[in-house]
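In the previous lecture we treated proteins in isolation. Real proteins rarely work alone, and many bind small molecules. This record shows how such a complex is specified: first the sequence, then the SMILES for adenosine-5'-triphosphate.
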Amino acid sequence: MASTETFASAKVNLTLHVTGQRADGYHLLDSLVMFADCGDRITLRLSETATLTVSGPKASGVPTGPENLVLRAAGLMRVGAEIGLEKHLPAAAGIGGGSSDAAAVLLAIRDLTGRIIPEQGLSLGADIPVCLIGQAAIMRGIGEDVTVLENMPTLHAVLINPGVPVPTGAVFQGLSRKDNPPMEPLPPALNFETLIGWLGQQRNDLQGPAIVAQPAIGDVLRSIAATAGCRLARMSGSGATCFGLYETADAATKAATVLQRPDWWVQPVRLN
Ligand SMILES: C[C@](O)(CO)[C@H](O)COP(=O)(O)OP(=O)(O)OC[C@H]1O[C@@H](n2ccc(N)nc2=O)[C@H](O)[C@@H]1O
Ligand SMILES: Nc1ncnc2c1ncn2[C@@H]1O[C@H](COP(=O)(O)OP(=O)(O)OP(=O)(O)O)[C@@H](O)[C@H]1O
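The predicted 3D structure, ligand included, written as tokens:
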């Protein structure tokens, strides 16, 4: 039967403004998202039955049963599939590992079978719609409203996860205000300098409550901010992964070298 290989990129929330709360408790977001050139690798073969093998350096603790988002994605597409998931992204880390895997599987099955991805994709995770797009975008609502951004400069970054899981729901509950201001409009001429200047004026509203829940995030942010050439240090999603932005790939690589710690996942990346 037909088979394919695909890549599930890390999602990075460069900004994350929480602007309100719906009646069902979900929070309204206004977030600039980009995608890194690091991620999980997936092999998929259409089959009579659904099977999953999880491997790779970040496989530990990732569910191998029907609750894994890749099997739920195949179920949503109503096909059986033998899936191999090679985990390189830390789980429950604010970089959408599970959502990105699920989106990659939805797209792979669509391409192999011609089936349409159902609207319920969002039920697998709030980041599924933006991960289906897979390029720089603004995400609003609870994630269902995605506007693609063309002409974004490639950014050089370091991603750091301190190895402590942060439950997304608990971080949202720690917010003192739900009705924070949305992002300001993006500058008309987008280049590295104008984007950095604008990003510095925006926020991740979940960063404060995440540091309260997990003080190690504060240590990571201070360490990133102290590296040579760091122009912005911030947390992604609900944490605990944080990123530093640099003008050149060389500066990001050098920062990654000095930021190595035994328990930290440290990755120099390009963001697009
Ligand atoms: C924070 C982000 O990473 C930003 O990209 C995502 O919105 C989180 O997406 P996710 O990990 O797919 O989150 P989900 O699995 O959908 O939600 C986990 C829990 O976080 C809370 N949650 C999540 C998203 C949202 N907009 N409002 C919320 O209040 C809810 O309590 C929910 O039960
Ligand atoms: N394919 C998968 N990869 C990682 N985790 C998965 C997967 N499928 C299900 N999970 C479960 O989902 C939980 C959240 O993992 P995920 O990596 O999606 O979180 P996240 O990086 O915080 O996402 P987000 O940025 O969307 O908040 C994990 O604790 C894990 O138990």
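Summary for your notes: The two ends are 34 Å apart (CA to CA). Residues 97-113 form the longest helix (17 residues).
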